Amino acid sequence: MKLVIAMLMDGVIYASWLFVIAAGLTLIYGVMKILNMAHGSFYAIGAYSGASLVGIYLAGGNPVWGSYLVLLGAALVIGALVGLMAERGLLRFMYGRDEVVMILVTYGLLLILEDVIKLIWGVEAYSTYQPYTLLGRSKIAGLSFANYDFVLIGVSLLVGFLLWWGLNRTRSGKLLQVVIHDRNTASTQGINVTRMFTVTFVIGAVLGALAGALTAPGISVMPGLGVEVIVLAFAVVVIGGLGSVGGALVGALIVGLARAAAVHIYPDAELFVIYGVMALVLAFRPQGLFAIASARKI
Amino acid sequence: MQISLIKKTSVAGILVAATLSSAAFAADDYKLGLVTFLSGGAAGPFGVPAKNAADLTIEALNNGTLPAPYSSKGINGRTIVPVYVDEAGGATKQSSEYRSLVERRGVDAVLGYISSGDCLAIPAVAEQLKTLTVLFDCGTPRVFEENSYKYVFRTGPTATMDNVAAARYLKDNFEGLEAVSGINQNYSFGHDSWNDFIGTQQVLNASTKVSTKQFPKIYAGQYGAEISALMVNSSQVIHSSFWGGDMEAFLLQGAARGLFEEQTPLLTTGETAMFRLAEQIPEGTILGGRGPFGVYAPDNALNSWFRKAYTAKFGTPPTYPSYKMVQALLGLKLANEKAAEKVKGKPTQDDVIAAFEYLEYEGPGGTVKMNRGKGHQASMEMVYGRFTNKNGKPAITDVRRYVADCVTPPEGVSSSEWIEQGLKGAKCN
Q1: For residues B34 and B111, is the Cβ–Cβ distance under 8 A?
Q2: In CATH, what class is B160-289+381-420?
Q3: Cβ within 8 Å, pair A260-B225
Q4: What is the pTM of this model?
Q5: CB–CB of B256 and A264 under 8 A?
Q6: Which CATH architecture has domain B2-157+298-379?
Q7: What's the average pLDDT block by block, 10 residues per block, for chain A (298 residues)?
Q8: Which of A290, A296, B253, B291 is 20 to 30 A (C-alpha) from A212?
């Protein structure tokens, strides 16, 4: 019983972390058809900003609880700023190009941002553990879990709900769905597609930065962080179906639970299992679990 | 016409100046290729501290301000000029970089390499290009156990020494140890470290059980499931060769969940984090420094100079990669100068190699004996101790030192064979 609860809890915690990262990636793809390799850099920038700003904030003798606001603020402001700069300064000139070209462009952006990170923060590791430990821990079935991880689950549920509500229950969301289905038709009906793209990209970048900022207190923020995470995020969105937010949620849960089961039952397969699941899903549903198969123009 | 003449004259002038400066450079300087991680996850904990140590030591050597026997200027009076290369990119890229250092930039010697993968790949290229090469940090014992090299030396201890010493420390300090667990990175260093540790543990205490062994991906950062597995399969000691950000993340997450309240972590590279994470490292954690480095370094003139100068310049005490860089530089200098002394003039590379083989010298970490791998591999004493922060100042207690012959396979025996054969021939203090 203890083992089952451990696997479930570990799987859900890991999935919640993965979902916040993957949500931004899949949203951008769904609307803009850009498989954004630079999303890993947004995550890294969020982590570095969060860790360094919280460090400065705490060095000033401020109360630790305020560091949560600093983390959130860092993700929102810096994520939005970087997202806006990337979209307005580079990507808008590339719209309409082939998806493969966009992968190469965003890969180039990832490499540039990796060096920008190095220029700003250097190669030293940053750690800001106070927000992670402040909330204490709780016991479930005799196992201790950090309460901060439960907050992460809450945040991922909130992100999922807000995305669903925004897309399905608001006027802007419905307009966005028109853009998703057919951007040419949306444009002829007077929808400002370019603005939709900008807003979507900024939201996606903020989600990437938010994931990084919320992860920062529990890890040591170091160079290469973004590159490591983007591969996992791709696995999640590919399993769920590119462009599907619900799919990203299910994909994150599948990856999280599969990985946790492997770690507890057969640790040697920990790495294999994530990509094994992805290969299995793609073998039976090449478009992913939740993406709708569409005709391809030849 | 006039512009064209000016252009031609300028180009010719630049070429002549470049040739002259290059000739002057080659005549007076000792060009040293220095390869260390300047980017990626290994840069912060290893690469940059090693480069910092190199900068500091080269400056002191060139000025002749080091304590004896290193007080003469440069290498045989030649100013040392470092040519830095980033080690990031993998073994194939490093092989090309090595060729470029030797063939294009004309270095006299190459000193570097942190990654075991690079240390296994570079010697073949060094032998082909016949260039003196000093490996300063990588841990794999396979370099000189599987091959013999003429031009390659390693002045630091191997990972086998770390892990044999770790198991010996447990035998000496944990009576009645029943079970151990392990969490190591899923690549050669992590697997080799665990295999050497658990192999030795089973030789020294055959009844020890393994509760669980975890091998998460390097740079994974998230260890929630592994920590749960270590809690479900509880043991007395958790062995880990994690380094850098992975070690720090594991400590942060494990401490927040109370993992270390009933299980003692044994961190073979933990000394590197003892000041940075003084608030998070649990009391009693067993820390290694991959040799007598950092807080384990002896009280000698070199260490006193190095620790003081490094802390003053970089604002933090030096950790083991910095020490290993210094002792590699000192070994290279000493070998060159001994060779010059022997031939009473400028030594050839073969003279330097002959002087380097079986060299015994002092570094800031104590005595380095080049007495393994046919005189090309160093052996050193290994040290472990337990972390304490009771007085608000990070310190080490219960320090135990193991002489090199206690933790190092005899000449001609591979690490795995030695452990399998029950550490036959080990001479302990």
Answers
A1: yes
A2: alpha beta
A3: yes
A4: 0.89
A5: no
A6: 3-Layer(aba) Sandwich (3.40)
A7: 93 96 94 93 97 96 96 96 96 90 95 94 90 95 94 96 94 91 88 94 97 95 89 93 92 96 93 92 91 63
A8: A290
